[in-house]
Write a structure and sequence with these properties.
The complex is a heterodimer of chains A (about 300) and B (about 350). With about 300 residues, chain A is of the alpha/beta class. Chain A contains 11 helices and 14 strands. Chain A starts with a strand and ends with a helix. Chain B is built from 16 helices and no strands. In chain B, helix 1 packs across helix 9 and helix 2 runs antiparallel to helix 6. The two termini of chain B are about 40 Å apart. Classes of the chains: A alpha/beta (about 300), B mainly alpha (about 350).
Chain lengths: ~300, ~350
């Protein structure tokens, strides 16, 4: 178990950030979703023992979030959302310093800093002052600083915020590699659903400080009964017109058609229409819900 | 090239305990500050006064032993009182006390300059670059963060206050060739170390507080200069206009001086010297820096009491002012550098 929270409550004055949040999360790459003000940051801070929770309990990597705060922070790597860096240091110095703050011996921290800077692609810029780095480089520097001590859990809070597409792609590939090839568990908080989809295999959706939904992404993206993705060999527009004649609405998406079957019809209707039109069906499968639909559905239900 | 082509190795080393967190902050800060050549220059320059003090203590040690090495210099000691010349060992504590008092009078400028060079960046830059969350999201408590930052500036201040005191004592002991010197000067040693520690702690805390008040290091430096000079000038103006007993308390420097004189009991030493009748500041082998006179206009030959020691108010007042400044500094620090247990 990566972490489990039981009935977690946290108030900031009159603001109720967490309202009895209970969640149990397995190892792996976990996406954390929620609208603004849902309590994502407070949940992360609770996991790290950075806030004193008002009620409830929790364990992270087997450690209690109330009593083992420092031990948790030693075992976990955290990449904060904000633009932040250690001032006056070059890249290698900043990462080595981050390692020393976690308790690494100075020599190990320096050697490891070289390794992780190479890993995140900042090897060439390691001796440059970190305040001269671009946004993407700073993000990668934060990741390097967070993984310098090889944490068991890496928490990334909005890691692709404000980044250009290339930089975003770099960070996502890095996260995927860490999670899938290096055996590091991730908690990936983002409001960019494609990013979560690209990196994570499990997702948590919270809203108003409560758990709205959780599960494996593959399971949450359920197949639809009446919506299908259809790809044909010939002209999809012509076949779309043929389907319209028999009352089946279609919508072209990329190289295929999205088909919505009306009540009283079934997949067999498509096959029959193709046969009549002399069209060859190359792919025909139920459309699955996107993560966006799952997320919006959960949020709307909560509202 | 994919950015993860270089591979990723797991690290299975051993992490140290919690006690060393602040040391890591302090160590890194000291290293970074040493990169400033002005800091290095100031630290080197600060060796000047303690070397002179050590030379004086060597001179006095040889004088006590009536060493033949001093024969060429005896002409300079002609105007010393006979009592002093005949029994210098009896004046050992007095001379050491006045020597250390004078040393601190001069040396104090170095911790103040170093505070100006090392201190402004300590917290202000962390605030500017939003580094506090980076510290606190690691196993570093706010208290340890403060302690680490305090350690940086305290290390430099101790290097030019406590370090020189220990150096001077070591040299002085070595050349006195008398075991009793340890007992005779115990008060001077403890007083000097206590004063150096007070200067270090007080200036460090104040500068940390100033550093947390702005994200711009220049403003912080200006605050420190203003505090140092303006408080002295204001104190002088108040003394000449209001003339009340509490007026010297306005000056940070005067408060430190008052504590120094109380810890070293330099007043008693000066009284003893002046009781010899022939002694004035000018007749001492190492002429004291001319004092900032306060209520009385002292003539070099006239006063029977120390012209340097501000005896117009109890030293406890100055101690209270310094304690209040330290408390205010802590309050500012805890207010300005907040934890992450709050709404963004």
């Amino acid at each position: 178990m990566l972490f489990e929270l039981q009935d977690l409550t946290k108030n900031y004055g009159r603001v109720r950030a967490l309202r009895g949040l209970s969640v149990t999360v397995p190892q792996g790459a976990i996406g954390l979703l929620g609208p603004n003000g849902a309590g994502k940051t407070t949940m992360i801070r609770s996991i790290l023992g950075l806030v004193a929770v008002d009620g409830g309990s929790g364990r992270v990597l087997g450690m209690d979030i109330r009593t083992d705060r420092l031990a948790i922070r030693q075992a976990v790597g955290f990449v904060p959302e904000d633009d932040c860096l250690f001032p006056g240091m070059n890249g290698i110095g900043a990462v080595a310093y981050a390692g020393e703050l976690v308790g690494m011996p100075t020599r190990d921290a320096l050697r490891r800093a070289h390794e992780v800077l190479d890993y995140v692609g900042l090897g060439e810029a390691r001796y440059r002052k970190s305040d001269s780095y671009s946004t993407g480089m700073r993000q990668r520097l934060k990741i390097a600083s967070a993984i310098v001590h090889d944490p068991r859990l890496l928490i990334l809070d909005e890691p692709t915020n404000g980044m250009d597409p290339a930089g975003r792609d770099d960070v996502l590939r890095l996260a995927v590699d860490l999670a899938r090839n290096k055996g590091m568990s991730l908690l990936f908080a983002s409001h960019l659903l494609p990013d979560v989809e690209a990196v994570c295999d499990h997702v948590i959706v919270i809203g108003h400080g409560r758990l709205l939904l959780q599960g494996r992404i593959a399971e949450l993206e359920k197949p639809h009964n009446r919506e299908f993705e259809l790809r044909v060999k010939g002209d999809p527009r012509a076949f779309s017109a043929r389907l319209a004649e028999i009352g089946i609405a279609t919508e072209p998406v990329d190289d295929h058609l999205l088909v919505a079957l009306p009540e009283g019809t079934g997949p067999r209707t498509i096959w029959e229409a193709a046969q009549r039109a002399g069209e060859q069906v190359r792919a025909f499968r139920p459309r699955r819900s996107t993560l966006e639909e799952v997320f919006l559905g959960a949020v709307e239900e909560d509202a | 090239m994919p950015i993860f082509d270089q591979g990723y190795q797991h690290w299975d080393g051993r992490l140290s305990g919690q006690a060393t967190r602040w040391v890591a902050i302090a160590r890194r800060g000291v290293t970074v500050a040493m990169g400033n050549r002005w800091t290095r220059l100031t630290v080197l320059s600060a060796l000047g006064p303690p070397i002179l003090l050590a030379l004086f203590l060597v001179f006095w040690g040889l004088f006590e032993q009536k060493s033949s090495f001093l024969t060429p210099f005896l002409i300079f000691l002609d105007n010393l009182p006979e009592e002093l010349k005949n029994g210098p060992r009896g004046f050992r504590t007095t001379i050491w006390t006045l020597a250390f008092r004078q040393f601190f009078e001069v040396q104090l400028v170095f911790p103040m300059i170093l505070t100006l060079l090392v201190g402004p960046d300590l917290i202000s830059q962390d605030l500017r670059f939003n580094a506090i969350p980076l510290y606190l999201s690691r196993p570093v408590r706010r208290f340890e963060y403060f302690l680490g930052k305090l350690g940086i500036i305290a290390a430099y201040l101790a290097a030019v206050t406590i370090g020189p005191v220990l150096l001077a004592f070591a040299v002085g002991y070595a050349f006195s060739l008398d075991f009793h010197v340890v007992l005779d000067t115990a008060r001077v040693l403890t007083g000097s170390l206590a004063y150096a520690a007070i200067v270090t702690a007080s200036a460090s805390l104040l500068m940390l507080a100033f550093s947390s008040l702005s994200r711009n290091s220049r403003y912080v430096a200006a605050m420190w200069l203003g505090f140092w000079f303006v408080s002295s000038i204001a104190s002088g103006i108040l003394q000449s206009t209001v003339g009340a007993e509490w007026c010297p308390l306005v000056s940070y420097r005067t408060n430190l001086d008052r504590i120094r004189d109380a810890l070293l009991d330099s007043e008693t030493s000066w009284d003893r010297m002046t009781s010899l009748g022939q002694v004035s500041p000018r007749s001492l082998p190492m002429r004291p820096f001319q004092p900032r006179r306060r209520h009385h206009r002292a003539d070099d030959e006239a006063p029977r009491r120390s012209p340097w020691a501000p005896r117009t108010y109890p030293w406890e007042w100055s101690a209270a002012v310094l304690a209040a400044l330290a408390a205010a500094s802590l309050l500012v620090l805890t207010t300005r550098v907040r934890g992450l247990d709050r709404l963004r």
